Amino acid sequence: QVQLVESGGGLVQPGGSLRLSCAASGRTFGGYLLGWFRQAAGKERTFVAGISWSGGDPYYSDSAKGRFTISRDNAKNTVYLQMNSLKPEDTAVYYCAFSASRRYVPVSVTESYDYWGQGTQVRVSS
């Protein structure tokens, strides 16, 4: 079992920044991907960013590119999402997710992930 706990959400003004954290615990060794997804009210959960524990390039949705940065600290078992230049359309519940697969799986689909955090609310509003 893997447990994921998100933090760092909140209310920010358009153009502001937030850094989300996701602390993972449990049997994470051997897993491949950590990802961030978001779900706006009444909408489907969609991919934001993903990164491999073992290295390699991070992945971003089109909306995240140039504004968001995903990173991880293996020693702390933590993945981060730095969000800059936030827009009202970024408002959503943000979830971190962990894939226990030891093989390469599609980074941007929810089906690739086995464990999910409870989510943290991000609201971008004046």
Helix coverage percent: under 10%
Query: Per the principal axes of the C-alpha atoms, what is the gross shape?
Result: globular
Oligomerization category of the chains in this entry: single chain
Beta-strand share of residues: over 45%
Report the radius of gyration as a whole number of Å: 14 Å
Query: Structural class per helix/strand content?
Result: mainly beta
Structure summary, number of beta strands = 11
Number of helices: 0
Termini separation: 40 Å
Low-confidence region ranges: none
* Major sheet summary line: 7 strands, mixed
Order of helices and strands: EEEEEEEEEEE
What number is the mean pLDDT? 92
Structure, described:
There is one protein chain. By secondary structure, this protein is mainly β. Helices cover 0% and strands 48% of the residues. The chain has no helices and eleven strands. Strands 2, 4, 5, 6, 9, 10 and 11 form a seven-stranded mixed beta sheet that branches. A four-stranded antiparallel beta sheet has the order 1-3-8-7, with no helix packed on it. It is globular, with a radius of gyration of 14 Å.
